[in-house]
Amino acid sequence: MKKIVGIIPARYASSRFPGKPLIDIGGKSMIQRVYEQCLKTSILNHVVVATDDERIARKVNEFGGNVVLTASHHQSGTDRCAEALSKLNNTYDVVINIQGDEPFINPKQIELLAEAFLNPHTEIASLIKEITAEEEINNPNVVKAIFNKLDEAIYFSRSPIPYKRNKDFPTHYYKHIGIYAYRADVLPKLTQLKMGTLEQIESLEQLRWIENRLVIRLCKTDLETIAVDTPEDLERILKTL
Question: Does 194 have pLDDT greater than 90?
């Protein structure tokens, strides 16, 4: 049985929505809702919020959650997760990076990621979902993924991939759902990798890993949750509630 920790990176600063983790959603802060969704799955041995902000840390302490303070210079959630892992007392086999802006993440998504590590060759795991809305195929904000017969990622792009040269051949497009899990011994190594050409072109962190020949196993899901990136996203969620 693998020992798994769920880490929720949360920062106060945001160009599009400052203070996002602390916004109120139906009487609870967003960070509390994410945390509580994580507790609904039994596969996580520990859940912790990783933040660089005292205000977020206080809020997590108020609702009885676990929190670890991390540096403010991190460029990605992966880097913040790596520091948080180094500060935890226990040893874990797998780290699941749970987005701090998805207050209604489905626990089954977390469980699906954990199952990927039953395969000993899995170094990193993430989720994909088949695209059913035509407008998403050409939307650069929807990241597309292609993979091999072992469900290992070949490439990620903001452009439609594969390119449909043969118009008569049925083509399936898959969107990338940005939740990651890492083997615990692999995570610290990711923070040492330098940004490559592909990442700079597409502005996608996971391309750095592919350029360095790391195996990203992609798990297919039919589930998708709404991320809160802007105040407009919040309004849509509040209407749903």
Answer: yes
- Per DSSP, the chain holds a count of helices (H) and strands (E) of 9, 11
Amino acid residing at 11:
R
Buried b (16+ CB within 10 A) or exposed e, 108-120: ebbbbbbebbeee
- Cα 203 to the center of its chain, rounded Å: 15
Question: What confidence tens digit (pLDDT) does each residue in 74-97 have?
Answer: 988 999 999 999 999 889 999 999
Placement of tokens 């920062």 in the chain: 11
CATH fold label, 4-228: Spore Coat Polysaccharide Biosynthesis Protein SpsA; Chain A (3.90.550)
CA atoms within 13 A on the CB side of 175: 20
Q: List, in order, residues 6 or more apart from 1 with CB less than 8 Å away.
A: none
Domain residue spans of the chain: 4-228
